[in-house]
Design goal:
Number of domains: 1
Largest sheet: 7 strands, antiparallel
Structural class: mainly beta
CATH superfamily: Electron Transport, Fmn-binding Protein, Chain A
Shape: globular
Order of helices and strands: HEEEEEHEHEEEEEE
Helix content: 10-25%
Radius of gyration: 15 Å
Number of strands: 12
Number of helices: 3
CATH topology: Pnp Oxidase, Chain A
Bound molecules: flavin mononucleotide
Length: about 160
């Protein structure tokens, strides 16, 4: 008998992660994005990343259609940004500093790093879809990351 979702969420909350905003776009180039921590590197050769996107997210159809995404790794000062991109039904990009990369996705100002990916496979996985993306461009600075642990935002200790 599988466990229920609140138990899975509670236990996996003990697995500390970074926080990302995954961006994509519509056919006209309008940016979309959502906060995500179900993100992993998969392969170095070829360079592959995966992201898991909730089929019920408003942003989901744009991931399905565009075939591209960019993972923005958030810095410790970007908790407000993370909360904003974890909220449905609002204009997320209003007043948010970003540039558009070669895939047409938003690269957010002040993020610790980013990875621009082309979807090579979409895998149906319960209430999420796993997008496996080949990495075209990756870049990172030396800023401190934002962390997520047991339902709360954290920073690296001294
Ligand atoms: C720390 C954190 C991690 C999250 N990780 C994911 C994730 O990996 N995949 C996902 O689909 N949603 C994730 N979410 C939830 C989405 O950000 C949230 O459902 C958001 O409202 C979706 O926005 P949208 O409906 O505008 O697309 C996460 C939220 C938080 C706060």
């Amino acid at each position: 008998m599988p466990i229920d979702k609140s138990e899975l969420r509670r236990v996996m909350g003990h697995f500390a992660t970074g926080v990302t905003i995954i961006t994509t776009r519509d056919e006209g180039g309008r940016p979309f994005g959502l906060t995500a921590n179900a993100v992993s590197s998969v392969s170095l050769v070829p360079p592959l990343m995966l992201v898991c996107v909730d089929k019920n997210a408003d942003t989901y159809p744009y991931f399905e259609r565009s075939g591209v995404f960019t993972i923005n790794i958030l810095a410790e000062g970007q908790e407000t940004l993370s909360r904003k991109f974890a909220t449905s039904g609002i204009e997320k990009f209003a007043g948010i500093g970003h540039r558009t990369n070669e895939l047409g996705c938003a690269v957010l100002d002040d993020a610790v790093g980013h990875l621009a990916c082309r979807v090579v496979r979409a895998i149906d996985a319960g209430d999420h879809t796993i997008y496996l993306g080949e990495v075209d461009v990756a870049d990172a600075g030396d800023g401190a990351p934002l962390l997520f642990f047991r339902g709360g935002y954290r920073k690296l200790g001294p």
